[in-house]
Amino acid sequence: MAKGKYKYLFKNMALFTISSFVSKLLVFFLVPFYTSILTEAEYGIADVMQSTLLLTVPLLSLNAGEAALRFGLDKGADHAEILGIGLKRVLMSDLCAMLLSLAVYIFRLLTGNGPKGEYIALFLVLYICNSFYEYMLLYCQGTEKVQIMITGSVSCTFLVIICNIFFLLVLSMGLFGYLLAQMLSFVGSGLLIFFLLGGLAELRNIKGDRKLQKEMREYGSGMLLYSTSSWVNNALDRYYILLMLGASENGLYGVAYKIPAILSIFQRIFAQAWQMSAAKEFDEAGRDAFFSKMFKVYNAIMVVGAAGIIFLLKPLAGLLFQKNFFEAWVLVPPLLISVIFGALEGFLGSICLAFKDGKSIGRATGLGALVNIVLNYFLIIEFATMGAAIATLVSYFVMFAAAYIMVRKYVKLEVSMRKNFLAYALLIVEALAVTVNLKNFYLINLIVVIMLIVLYTKEIAAFLARFIGKKDAEGKI
User: Fold this and answer.
1) Buried b (16+ CB within 10 A) or exposed e, 135-165
2) Percent of the chain with pLDDT over 90
3) Which of 10, 78, 188, 430 has its CA 20 to 30 A from that of 371?
């Protein structure tokens, strides 16, 4: 049984690796292209729109995609019913988005000069396209149609690249072209997934299961605190910066996230595969040992990966950030470390969600969000954009610590937090060395990277052994 658990997890990790490396890396390498064509203000506006989607899609749809993912993994799940219920909620959320957008425009809830009506209309269309695409991705994951999910994800990437090159380079459409490329890629890839799944045939088999509809709605509603708080931690800093410092500073802050996105590639690969494994194994014997091993490996890879990226930070920034965007490199270290704590909180959250408990992890995330709201205001006043980055780091750590406590009602994680806190401290030393430009900071950072590799030798070896299909010594970490 244990072999099956690891086989299922790493099989899905291998598939998601293909998707993420093709999709995320291609988009990642477009960063110099975007930063050479778009202004800081244009990039800042686009970044706020994308951040707003992270809140509005799960909020207005009552987490339809997450409900489809969780209920789709249940034994004997009626996938046709789940598809119909979810798409109905997505359509209702589109209607809500239209009404809210109309209210914002009519009552002039957005202040200031500029083409606000155009931005509202662009965001509405972007919302409709993205809500459909995101739901189809999560539905595929829930029905374990991973190959179709990957096809859709990769096609979305190629569409956005082709459209951006045409709209930005050939037609010089600026911000409008950048957003239009996303709209077309979302709706095109969403439709591709729908037809590959045989969506029309599935919808013909709907019986109208009111009990399932109620259960999915309750599950999604129970996750609202979690999803909303997650958005606060992911995106609120952008709004503070936009309102307090302006669109140009928000553009710099938004592009600073592109280097942490390197680490997020692995985080996304693992998180997608892990979410499926957690739902499958939550009621199995030996889950404490399984979850503990996975936590150790995940934490080790994230920490060592972050240390390596910080070591190469300045060369990477020089390669990726064009023109005035280069000065954003100094914001990367705290944002990079926050990715680690956010990933670990997501890992723990998946365990709670496997037990269909969104409220506990919602409270943990809500505590982090409250810290984020308070710290962002005061730290931005004192330290500008760096204050927002520090606030994000602190709030993610609080969120992780609270989630670690919450998850103990379901799983006893057998991990050495003393060792982990030593690793986090070393990572902060490395980040400070490069940020304040200490003399010989490259040597200091190299020593830190080596120390972390030594500290996590067993975990790294176990990950490599599992990933290439070999057993680690006695199967232990």
Assistant:
1) bbbbbbbbbbbbebbbbbbbbbbebbbebbe
2) 29
3) 430
